[in-house]
Design goal:
The complex is a heterodimer of chains A (115) and B (112). Chain A contains no helices and eleven strands. With 115 residues, chain A is mainly β. In chain A, 0% of the residues lie in helices and 50% in strands. Chain A is globular. Chain B is globular and about 40 Å long. Classes of the chains: A mainly beta (115), B mainly beta (112). At the A-B interface, strand 4, strand 5 and strand 9 of A face strand 6 and strand 11 of B.
Chain lengths: 115, 112
């Protein structure tokens, strides 16, 4: 079975531009989360979506937005890119069973470089 | 707010040495605790977990015990192999569907 897939693998943008990152969850998983991992640091939570609704938001500016589609895939959008947005963007998918532990499965990430 | 602190790396050991990577946490409630591993060129993988105090998670020879009294979740292995070289992340979650909060990661280098 395919794991979590993300596209593109690498991306180079310039300051002020906009970027869209894409994620396809594992089949059967209805929840998708996005994390930003700056080099040398642990991931930072950006968003969680379940059934097309935002279920959680981390401490990121409004330049960051996301959405989830009926097939449970997701997009992360970042506007007005800054140099500090350069990072590995990780997508994770999971079931969403209330009251149970739901392991998050991570994709390989999209490496974004802002020049 | 909730946070995770883990020992800085890199940690360099010889093959068959004993490993301990320290992890402590700060949380307002009773989190679930995790160790994730990131092998070179690969994505993050769950290594082990513990969901309540005194639970011991184990996998691939690695162990970690949830210590509420010391707010710790140290990762241990009795005999490391070259193939264990990776970056190890300690993380916590305040619920079954809540965001993961991560430590900064510890790079482990095992020399033959």
């Amino acid at each position: 079975d395919a794991g979590v897939t993300q596209s593109p693998t690498h991306l180079i943008k310039t300051r002020g531009q906009h970027v869209t990152l894409r994620c396809s969850p594992i089949s059967g998983h209805k929840s998708v989360s996005w994390y930003q991992q700056v080099l040398g640091q642990g991931p930072q939570f950006i968003f969680q979506y379940y059934e097309k609704e935002e279920r959680g938001r981390g401490n990121f500016p409004d330049r960051f937005s996301a959405r989830q589609f009926p097939n449970y895939s997701s997009e992360l959008n970042v506007n007005a890119l800054l140099l500090g947005d350069s990072a590995l963007y990780l997508c994770a998918s999971s079931f969403f069973l209330e009251g149970e532990y739901n392991e998050q499965f991570f994709g390989p990430g999209t490496r974004l470089t802002v020049l | 707010g909730d946070s995770v602190t883990q020992m800085e790396g890199p940690v360099t050991l010889s093959e068959e040495a004993c490993l301990t990577i320290n992890c402590t946490y700060t949380a307002t409630g009773y989190p679930s605790l995790f160790w994730y591993v990131q092998y070179p060129g690969e994505g993050l993988q769950l290594l082990l977990k513990a969901t309540k105090a005194d639970d011991k998670g184990s996998n691939k020879g690695f162990e970690a015990t949830y210590r509420k009294e010391t707010t710790s979740f140290h990762l241990e292995k009795g005999s490391v192999q070259v193939s264990d070289s990776a970056v190890y992340f300690c993380a916590l979650s305040m619920g079954s569907n809540y965001q993961l909060i991560w430590g900064a990661g510890t790079k482990l280098i095992i020399k033959p």
